[in-house]
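Quarterly update, task 2.4: D-malate-bound model.
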Amino acid sequence: MIRVNENYLKIQASYLFTEIAHRVKAHQDAHPDAKIIRLGIGDVTEPLAPAVVAAMHKAVDDEAARETFHGYGPEQGYAFLRDAIAENDFQKREIDVASDEIFVSDGAKCDCGNIQELFGQDVKIAVPDPVYPVYVDTNVMAGRTGVNTDGRYSGLIYLDGNAANGFVPAPGNLEADVVYLCFPNNPTGATATKAQLQAWVDWARANKALILFDAAYEAFIRTPGIPHSIYECAGARECAIEFRSFSKTAGFTGVRCGYTVVPKGLVAWKADGSSAELRPFWTRRQTTKFNGCSYITQRGAEAVYSPEGAAQTKATIDFYLGNAKIVKDALLALGYDVTGGMDSPYLWVNVKGDSWEFFDRLLKEANVVTTPGAGFGRAGEGYIRISAFNSRENVEEAVGRIAKVLGG
Ligand code: MLT
């Protein structure tokens, strides 16, 4: 008799953004003429940079000729892309990461979800709350938690992010083996200072723990001094894995490309107390379960680092940051407390009430889609997240409609 993985019975039936999509569809079906503006899921709207498009066209031509055709590529990514990443994202910032520590993939979400396969079943996991749901749900699916009561799984440690700590929880005397951190943060848009990240690195080293650092929104950092990588902190190579994505950096949400850094010498411990390097484990996992990101995609990603590609992608991010400022200024003018929206495409708005109710109100009365904070965890209740990914015209229109509904 085929049995189910009963861990799946513990998780909510649908993923947060799937639930939102259902509600939006129901509203659209009931009001076919409503012009709905989506500031919910963090999906980019602006087209790929011309340099990326040209590189992908050329790569298609490569695939069209026997002499330049590429079949299976290296599972860890082509050297041309790994070298470009190591040089531009790390070495130019004087961060010690080599190209053979970079594993190219089809996106940070998959890597953040898959990485937990490397760890023992009984490791103690800590997550921030509010949290990107993937960190939690993948550990629930893997059987590392008990049931969910009042929005929290037994067996998981939750680190509250709130206005008092600026949505940057500190390690304190946390007893955990693995902690997920994400900065600039999804969903709150908060950034961590170097001192705050260094405190986490020091804690991890002192406790033989591991930091899983999600830096998918790194390209939005404009404030000098905010770390772009966990490896800017002393000792981080000994205790951290970092995830990056081309999705928000270069508009690849549909194209799909990201990468994970697993430094040489980074270890976890065996039952007998000896250590094992994690990089060979991740290599083994990826070579077994993943056949690499497409050649065409990787050529497109490589072009993000060309002088034209870098300038074009930066201009697009500046554009989204301009959207974020428009939304932030409008909400501040309406009297709301807002976190994020600088160094981040997300704004985290204190709505002083039920977040799903507020979401429904903006959907029904303003035809604007946001994301209810409660969907990111218990500590997200009372907030909504607004994404800056949309056209300028739609953002201005959405802000006007929101002001009309909320302004009385
Ligand atoms: C979000 O809206 O939180 C993100 O788009 C989700 C993701 O990147 O997977």
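Highlight for this quarter: The mean pLDDT is 97.
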